[in-house]
Structure formats: C-alpha cells, structure tokens
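Journal club prep, notes for RB
We'll compare a predicted complex against what the paper describes. Inputs for the nicotinamide-adenine-dinucleotide case:
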Amino acid sequence: MANDQYVFQNPVTRFESITPDEQDQPEPATDAELTPKADHGEESYRGTGRLTGRRALITGADSGIGAAVAIAFAREGAHIAMSYLESEQKDANRIAGYLQDAGATVVQIPGDISDRAFANELVSRAVEGLGGLDILVNNAGKQIFRESLEELPDDQFDETFKVNVYAMFWITKAALPHLPAGSTIINTTSIEAYQPAPILVDYASTKATINAFTKGLSQQLAPKGIRVNAVAPGPIWTPLQVSDGQPKDALPEFGKSTPLGRAGQPTELAPAYVFLASPESSYVIGETLNVNGGMPTP
Ligand code: NAD
Ligand code: MG
C-alpha cells in the first residue's frame, strides 16, 4: 500500500478536513449515497498477520466504522461474518469484495438485530458459516437527534435502546457458548457516553450503558479467558450522520471543533479494534479506547 497506516505523517493533514454539504437520507443511510466518500482503508490499510485464522462477527459491517474494521480484520488474516440491514445489501456487497480479495471467508447475514429471534439466528449462522467464532464486534447503532425531550417519541427511545443495547446483550449472550478462551468482544461506544449532546439524550444514554455493560461483563468473563473491551469514537464521517444523526446545518462543521480540527475517517478506528481483538492485548480488559481527535475523556 502506497500510503498505509504505518507511514509517518501529520495527523492533522493525514485526511482532508471535510465540509460536507447539508444532505439527507432515510434511515439507514447508505455509504453509496454519501458525499464526500468515507475512507474505510480500501486503498490504505495494510495487514501484518495479527488476526491470522481468527473468526469474527461484526455488526454494521456494511458501512462506516464496521466496514473499516471488516477490511482491517480481513487483511490481518481473519474470516468475517457481516451483519447489516437488508436495504444495505449494495454497501455490504462492495465491502465483501474487499474481504474476499484479502482471502477471507465471508458470510453475509442481512437482518434486523432489534428482533430477538433474528439476533440469535445471526449468531448461529455466523458460527455455522465460519466454523466457529472467536471475535465479536458489537458495532451496529442507531442515532436520531431530537431538539427536546417532548419531541423524542417513545418508539424512537425504545428502538435506539433495542439496536444499541438489547441487540448487543442478545448477540453477546448467544455468542458466549461458542467463544473459546482467547476470544475477544469489542463494543462500540461513543464520546457521547461522557459528553452527551443535549439533542442526543436517548443515544448518549445507550452509549453510557454500553460502557457499564462492557466493564461489568469484562470482569465476569476474564477468568474464562474472554476479554471484553470497548472503542469510543469521536466524530467520524459515516452514513449515520446524514439520516438525522445530526441536524442538517451541523453537517458542514462536523468534527471541526476537535483538537485535530477535522472529522475522523472510519479507517482511523480500525487499528484500535485490531489491537483489542489480537492476543497482543492479552492484559487489556474492560478498557475503553478513545479514538476521537483529542477530546478529553475521563
Ligand atoms: P453506519 O451507519 O455506517 O453504521 C451503523 C450500522 O448499524 C448500519 O450500517 C447498519 O448496518 C447497522 N444497524 C442499524 N440498525 C440496525 C438494525 N436494526 N439491525 C441490524 N443492523 C443495524 O455508522 P457508524 O458511524 O459507522 O456507526 C457504527 C457505530 O459507531 C455505531 O454504534 C455508532 O453509534 C458508533 N459511533 C459513531 C460515531 C460517528 O461519529 N460516526 C461516533 C461514536 C460512535
Ligand atoms: Mg450501513
């Protein structure tokens, strides 16, 4: 790779400081319709064998952070089960192509993880398709801004908790019997867990819950040799933001208030997940790796 993640360079200018147009997509927004394009490491992520032969289930693997993690894992030698919604098939197919090019076995499992029965089926099909499982990345997420609590519908509150929290619980519970010692679970939380935006009360609450779930479960599973950790992204340019993840007029400024002065690209998250998935992080448990352009966290 000509410009891979190991090239010494200035993080301020490694990626362009984008000024996205105000744009709208119905949920779930797709990468295919996103402008400017997000960078998932297609042309840059270089693997060095850190996950050779591993078997990973990644939710939300069709786009954004999950897609970047999938590409990185495949190039590190892992086989991948991809979870995403049926309407995201086009994005999923594009990412699957990169995984196959890297030599990975790819299992595509579209469906709605807020449905408990499907969450269980997802794990069964991943285990069957990959011949086992030793990495679980709970990354799918729902984020819809609302200016006031009065405007936050009950069904949105419910659905945000279903996708971000319940699905993580169901999928993790279903996966546990299949995970051998050495396995790793990585949950995607957010800077919103520590700095909740006034317009993301429901979403931020799910992310704080994910942090507590991660830290509690990590202690429970450590004696079994299963490590649980989390990654907390800051503002990352992904489809989530254009399906009312943010107000339209906030999109041009997205990420510019970070100390780095720009939004992050999905591929900048990937090395954090690779580190936590790999045996090299054997003594790292219940940790939250913040990847947020420099915003202070507790
Ligand atoms: P994204 O839209 O690319 O990914 C979210 C994915 O969630 C979708 O691709 C979709 O496949 C999946 N999903 C949503 N509802 C689902 C459902 N009911 N069933 C199955 N799959 C479903 O956006 P992203 O920003 O890459 O989001 C990935 C994770 O990162 C989310 O958990 C999000 O909360 C978190 N995060 C994102 C940012 C950011 O700035 N983009 C910041 C902090 C945390
Ligand atoms: Mg998507």
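Talking point for the session: The radius of gyration is 18 Å.
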